[in-house]
Structures are given as C-alpha cells and as structure tokens.
C-alpha cells in the first residue's frame, strides 16, 4: 500500500470521526497498516466430464394445512385439534363446531349419521363408523355418539 494511500486513510478516518461527533485528536495519529500478500500456486485440476441433466422441480412452499384460513376464509375459525388428516374446528366464539377430513388436500366436512337431543340438539356419529374411519381419539372424545332413541339415517 502506498504512503499516499495510507495518508488518505488517516485523513478520511479523522474526518469521519469529526463528522460523527467525535473529537479530532490534537496531535495527528499515525496509523501503520500492514498488508500481507500470500502467493499460492493453484493445484492442477483434473477435467471432469459434465453431463447435462434436467433441472429438479422447484420445491413447493410448505402449506400449513392446519391454519385457520384453510377451513374458511370468510369467518374467524378456531382450530381445536388438527393433525393434517383430521381436524375439529369451529367458528370463533360460537358453539358452531364441526369435524373435517383432509381428502386429497381438500378439507371435507365429516357429516354425522344422525341427530341427538341429549343435552342440546346436534349431530351424532355411529361408533362403528368413527372407529372404521380412524377418527383420532382427541376428536372422538368431543363427538356425540348416536344412542338408541337418537334420530339416525
């Protein structure tokens, strides 16, 4: 590095300190800069044949299948359970809840088998169907299972 360039760096640094609110030193500060240049000899390389290949498909962004917007985009949704295959969701701050199943990337409502009037009137599900379809225990525990006397069919 030339002496002229070093002098320029010292003056520029001092000007920068003054511009940033620092105090310029009373006596000029001598800054010594050392530049080390290492020479290296590149190692010989062996040519490698390049075979063109088709470029891989770009990775599609991960989709959060359990995000509330996946179930409805026009009403606020609360997701109470979701494992990306089954979900138990509802309209926020209401008693309107439902079970839904992911079929081919689409959430489809899992419709009840009947209606129960035990407690409040709501859909009920046949125990055998729920077991056969593999509804998770976390959802089954929240469902009304159809009992004798319920309207089924």
Could you give a quick summary of the protein structure above?
This protein is α+β, with helices and mostly antiparallel strands. The protein has helices spanning 3-19, 127-133, 137-140, and strands spanning 77-82, 86-91, 97-103, 106-109, 114-116, 122-124, 151-152. It has three helices and seven strands, in the order αββββββααβ.
List key phrases describing it:
alpha+beta, three-stranded antiparallel sheet, single chain, four-stranded antiparallel sheet, 2 domains, 153 residues, disordered N terminus
Would you mind describing this structure in some detail?
Keywords: Signal. Residues 51-60 have a biased composition (Low complexity). Residues 39-60 are annotated as: Disordered. The protein is of the alpha+beta class. The protein folds into 2 domains: 1-37, no CATH class; 68-152, no CATH class. The protein is built from 3 helices and 7 strands. β3 (97-103) and β4 (106-109) form a beta hairpin.
